[in-house]
């Protein structure tokens, strides 16, 4: 890079359908994802929930494949 800045990927823009799907999946895993506990067991449970949620999200037809970290940022 000429300006010495960090190279970034183009911004991932979610469609309304993708946002709605994610909203529905988060509601299904809400009790785990929104748990306020920060111990290792709860952290691992949250990580597993996000992995399962991402697998379900990516299994839908017509939806672009994304990673766990991309979904968590939305």
Description:
It is a single chain. This protein is mainly α and 74 residues long. The protein has one domain. Helix content is 57%, strand content 0%. It has 4 helices and no strands. The protein is globular and about 40 Å long.
| Residue runs with pLDDT of under 50 for 5 or more positions | none
> In the residues, how many domains can be counted?
1
Global geometry: globular
H-E order: HHHH
Please describe the topology of this protein.
Layout: H1 16-28, H2 30-33, H3 40-58, H4 68-73
Short description:
The chain is mainly alpha-helical and 74 residues long. Helix content is 57%, strand content 0%. Pfam families: Myb_DNA-bind_5.
What keywords describe this structure?
Regulatory protein zeste, Myb_DNA-bind_5, 74 residues, 0% strand, mainly alpha
């Amino acid at each position: 890079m000429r300006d010495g800045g960090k190279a970034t990927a183009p911004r991932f823009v979610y469609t309304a359908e993708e946002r709605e799907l994610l909203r529905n999946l988060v509601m299904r895993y809400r009790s785990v994802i929104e748990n306020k506990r920060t111990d290792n067991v709860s952290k691992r449970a949250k990580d597993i929930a996000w992995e399962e949620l991402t697998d379900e999200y990516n299994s839908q037809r017509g939806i672009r494949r994304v990673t766990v970290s991309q979904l968590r940022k939305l």
